[in-house]
Design brief:
Helix content is 55%, strand content 13%. By secondary structure, the chain is of the alpha/beta class. The protein folds into two domains: 156 residues, NAD(P)-binding Rossmann-like Domain (Rossmann fold, 3-Layer(aba) Sandwich), CATH 3.40.50; 120 residues, N-(1-d-carboxylethyl)-l-norvaline Dehydrogenase, domain 2 (Orthogonal Bundle), CATH 1.10.1040. The chain has an eight-stranded mixed sheet with strand order 3-2-1-4-5-6-7-8, with helices on both faces.
């Protein structure tokens, strides 16, 4: 890997793991701890990231910035980087629509002439080789892909303009996360109608794979708060293509109802069903 100094913005579970991959490959990886939570500090320290303290110091040291933030914050993060007159390569790795990605690119390029690369991460925080892909598009995608050569994160440079990598991510998550929310909604509907036992028996006969998918949806409920904006971005992607956006607006609403389970582990499907139904009652009462 070509030696480089990379700034990781918002090192959450994914960002810290990506930073560790780069550090293990020989890069200098910096971040800014000012205003960050103790949990974020711990993740960054465990990943071996170098604390530059302020965002200005981190950006001054870096040639490349990787933004790995919750989707709702992606544009504001780009604006903060632009405000610091960053002139290197800005890689947006957030789960946003192609249109939002292009808007982010305009922000970072207009401020100081930074180069923009579109990125989309598919898979869990990189650990075992081959588990996670980073799709990249736009000018400079190949250079960023080289940083990850031979690492646990497989970087795929697309011969396509900015927006393509985000489109791959949106299409992928539209299915995986969208159907997870649909499955939980179906389970809540069965409970409301008093047919859960019968539905479960039918699934066992004709759709046994749904139990594994439901278990995965329950396990991922702790991250549903992050998916609200992502589902809205996916809905916008569908709408931009002239396709129905209601599927993922409904998925966003399901995620919103599961927000109280943020970072919770060991949650049972019954708890999620109760929360979804209780939110419906509260919404009806305030209508």
């Amino acid at each position: 890997m070509t030696q480089a100094t990379v700034c990781i913005l918002n090192p959450g579970e994914m960002g810290a793991a990506v930073g560790r991959v780069l550090r293990d490959a020989g890069a200098r990886v910096v971040w800014s701890s000012v205003g960050r939570s103790e949990a974020t500090r711990k993740r960054a320290n465990e990943a071996g990231l170098e604390d530059a303290r302020t965002i200005s110091a981190a950006l001054d040291a870096a040639e490349i910035v990787l933004s790995v933030a919750p989707p709702h914050a992606a544009l504001d993060v780009a604006r903060s980087v632009a405000a610091n007159r960053f002139r290197g390569t800005f890689v947006d790795c957030n789960a946003v629509s192609p249109d939002t990605t292009r808007a982010i690119g305009e922000v970072v390029e207009a401020a100081a002439g930074a180069r923009f690369v579109d990125g989309g991460i598919v898979g869990p925080p990189p650990g075992a080789a081959g588990s996670t892909r980073l799709y990249l598009s736009g000018p400079g995608a190949g250079h960023i892909a080289e940083l990850f050569a031979g690492t646990a994160l497989t970087a795929v440079a697309l011969a396509a303009p900015v927006g393509a990598a985000s489109a791959v991510k949106a299409c992928y998550a539209a299915w995986t996360k969208g159907t997870a929310m649909l499955l939980l909604a179906v389970r809540a509907l069965a409970e409301h109608e008093g047919v859960t036992a019968t539905l479960v028996e039918e699934w066992a006969v004709s759709q046994p794979d749904l139990f594994r998918q439901l278990d995965r949806a329950v396990g991922n409920s702790r991250k549903a708060w992050r998916w609200i904006a992502e589902m809205e971005e996916i809905a916008a992607t569908f709408a931009g293509a002239g396709l129905p956006d209601g599927f993922h607006l409904a998925a966003a609403e399901m995620c919103r109802r599961l927000e109280p389970f943020k970072d919770a582990r060991g949650t049972k499907v019954e708890e999620l069903v109760n929360a979804v139904q209780a939110a419906r009652v509260r919404k009806k009462a305030t209508a």
